[in-house]
Structure formats: structure tokens, C-alpha cells
From TrEMBL:
InterPro entries: ALAD (IPR001731), ALAD_AS (IPR030656), Aldolase_TIM (IPR013785). This is Delta-aminolevulinic acid dehydratase. Homooctamer. It comes from the Bacteria. SUPFAM superfamilies: Aldolase. PANTHER family: DELTA-AMINOLEVULINIC ACID DEHYDRATASE (PTHR11458). The lineage of its organism: Bacteria, Pseudomonadati, Pseudomonadota, Alphaproteobacteria, Hyphomicrobiales. The keyword Hydrolase does not apply. Pathway: Porphyrin-containing compound metabolism; protoporphyrin-IX biosynthesis; coproporphyrinogen-III from 5-aminolevulinate: step 1/4.
Length: 343
């Protein structure tokens, strides 16, 4: 019988021998050294505050699916714009909850120069002219079916929709919008909007393209906020991007830049950090992310239930956008973060 021979024990190496004296914890040992080598920082200059507006005066309604977020009337939006100015938030993005009586198959109310979104823009600019105003020209808040375009025989018609959103963009610029941000994902919309703005004398109004807006499950609370949740017929997969595709997202962004977009946006945000990184690396253009309603709701609801530290999760999520390459973030957390950063 062979006698068992235990394996020879290796001579223990020291940690310095194992690492070659490269101890990566050295710069993590103290708060001052961690701050000294921090690669990315979140500042108030990174924040865009999306708000929801509704008809009426001096009214505020909490959105059940978005704890802490409210629909407000245009007069209160003006007050919130003054608050944004005090906090140093650079811009506000507005989204309307349009009365159902004003919605139709084509979203024609978007062409009313005195509609809710345009009245809100004028109110904000009168109260806080130093705050940028970003408006969306998608038709979904204005249609009776909840789609971002004109619906004919069960099909979202591209070219007719493009003509309408381009005309609406001019009205929004006339009302004082600084940036037009079309989210409808129709082919050719960026070029058509640029042509119409330039022809109307609004060459200085910028375009933030929702270049890569994905068909996502994270939009549910937003649809409640603008009143389209129960209206939507079918889905939006014929015009929003498949969330399995990243090369297609790059092609969409490239096309929008060729048509005249001044900046790019990725929507949603956290599930698409790889897309943000690709677009920033590929094009070196101002790149933004929209931390959408579902992302916000998950953090806010979990925090209310005591499952996570809401403030820490909020800040960590926003810093992730900066790490991925974002120049700015649309987030419902904007006023809270701005107050925290202000100290």
C-alpha cells in the first residue's frame, strides 16, 4: 500500500509580495484622499428638472405612482421656476396633462398657440428668465389614443406626424422655449424641426434629440402623470427602439446629428448606461439621460418602505450617469439634489 504523502505547504508570501507593493486601498483610507482622487462629481449644473403641468390655477395634485411628485398649474410652475433659479438648476422640462376634451385622433391641440404647454412656458419665462425651458413636441399628451403620432387605420403615420410636430415646435419657440426636445422617434423629425425653426427666425433655439428612446416598461408612472395610461391602444414598438438593440441606437443618434440635433438624449437611463457610454465615445457630443418615472418610483417607493436609504440610492444612481459620460440628467430628484448639494 502506498503511503499517503501530504502536499508540501507553499511558503506564504506577504501581501506586498503578492501585489508588488501596489496597495490600491492607500487612497481610500480617508475622506480627504477619497475626495482628492474622485473621478466623477455630481453638481447642480448637471440637473434638468422635469415637471408636470395641468389646467387651472393654484392647484397641486400628487401623482400616486410617483411619491413626492405633483402635477401643478402654470402659475405654480412659475413659482417652481423661481425656486429652480435660487437653487441654480439650469433648466426645466415641461410635460402637460391635457384635458381629455381637448384630445383627438391627430393631437391637433398641440397647434394651439395658447395651449397649456405654451402658457406654462410664458409663465416660467416671465418669472425666471434665467432658467432654460425645454419642451417636448410629441403628440401623446394631445391624442385620444395615447400614441406619439397621428394614428390612421391602426398605423402611426410618419410624415404627417413630422409636419405637425415641426409646426408645433415653432409655436413652442414663439412662446419662449429655449430647447425643443422631440420624443416621438419619427424618421426625419429633427431635420424638419430645424428647417421650420430656422425659417421662422429661431436659429438660436436648440434641439435636444430623444435620439434613443426605447420601448420600455419603465414609463408607466409617466403615463399616469400625463393622463395617457388608460388611453394607449396597443404599444409603441413600431417607432420606439427595441431594448435589445445597441447598434441601432447608434445609427439613430448618427442620423439625428446629421439632421441638426445639438445634443443627444438616452431614455430611459439606468438600464441603458451602455448606450450612453457608446454615444459619448462615438460622437463626443453633449449627451443627456432621462431618469424616467419608473426609475424614480422604484427608488422613492423603496425608500418610503424603509427598504433602502433613499438619499444614498438617489445620489448613487445619478453619479452612475456621470460615470457613463452624461453631461446632464433629467431627473425628478432635481430640486432635492440641488438642495442637498447647496448644503
Amino acid at each position: 500500500m502506498n503511503k499517503f504523502t501530504p502536499p508540501r505547504q507553499a511558503t506564504a508570501r506577504t501581501v506586498d509580495e503578492i501585489t508588488g507593493s501596489r496597495r490600491l486601498r492607500r487612497m481610500r483610507k480617508a475622506d480627504w484622499s477619497r475626495r482628492l482622487v474622485q473621478e466623477n462629481r455630481l453638481t447642480v449644473d448637471d440637473l434638468i428638472w422635469p415637471i408636470f403641468v395641468m389646467e387651472g390655477e393654484n392647484r397641486r395634485e400628487e401623482i400616486a405612482a410617483m411619491p413626492g411628485v405633483f402635477r401643478i398649474t402654470a402659475d405654480l410652475a412659475a413659482i417652481e421656476a423661481e425656486r429652480a433659479a435660487r437653487l441654480g438648476i439650469p433648466a426645466i422640462a415641461t410635460f402637460p396633462n391635457v384635458d381629455i376634451q381637448r384630445r383627438d385622433e391627430t393631437g391637433s391641440h398641440i397647434l394651439d398657440a395658447d395651449n397649456l404647454i405654451n402658457r406654462t412656458t410664458r409663465a416660467i419665462k416671465a418669472a425666471a428668465p434665467e432658467v432654460g425651458v425645454i419642451t417636448d413636441v410629441a403628440l401623446d399628451p394631445f391624442t385620444s389614443h395615447g400614441h406619439d403620432g397621428i394614428l390612421r387605420d391602426g398605423i402611426i403615420v410618419n410624415d404627417e406626424t413630422v409636419a405637425q410636430v415641426a409646426a408645433a415646435a415653432v409655436l413652442q419657440a414663439q412662446a419662449g422655449a429655449d430647447i425643443i426636445a422631440p420624443s416621438d422617434m419619427m424618421d426625419g423629425r429633427i431635420g424638419a424641426i430645424r428647417d421650420q425653426l430656422d425659417a421662422a427666425g429661431y436659429q438660436d433655439v436648440a434641439i435636444m434629440s430623444y435620439a434613443t428612446k426605447f420601448a420600455s416598461a419603465f414609463y408607466g408612472p409617466y403615463r399616469e402623470a400625463i393622463g395617457t395610461q388608460g388611453l394607449l391602444k396597443g404599444d409603441k414598438k413600431t417607432y420606439y427602439l427595441d431594448h435589445a438593440n445597441s447598434d441601432e441606437a447608434v445609427r439613430e443618434a448618427e442620423q439625428d446629428l446629421a439632421e441638426g440635433a445639438d445634443m443627444l438624449m438616452v431614455k430611459p437611463g439606468l438600464p441603458y448606461l451602455d448606450i450612453i457610454c457608446r454615444l459619448k465615445d462615438e460622437f463626443r457630443m453633449p449627451t443627456f439621460a432621462y431618469q424616467v418615472s419608473g426609475e424614480y418610483a422604484m427608488i422613492a417607493a423603496a425608500a418610503r418602505n424603509g427598504w433602502i436609504d433613499g438619499d444614498k440610492a438617489m445620489l448613487e444612481s445619478l453619479l452612475a450617469f456621470k460615470r457613463a459620460g452624461c453631461d446632464g440628467i433629467l431627473t425628478y430628484f432635481a430640486p432635492k439634489v440641488a438642495e442637498m448639494l447647496k448644503g
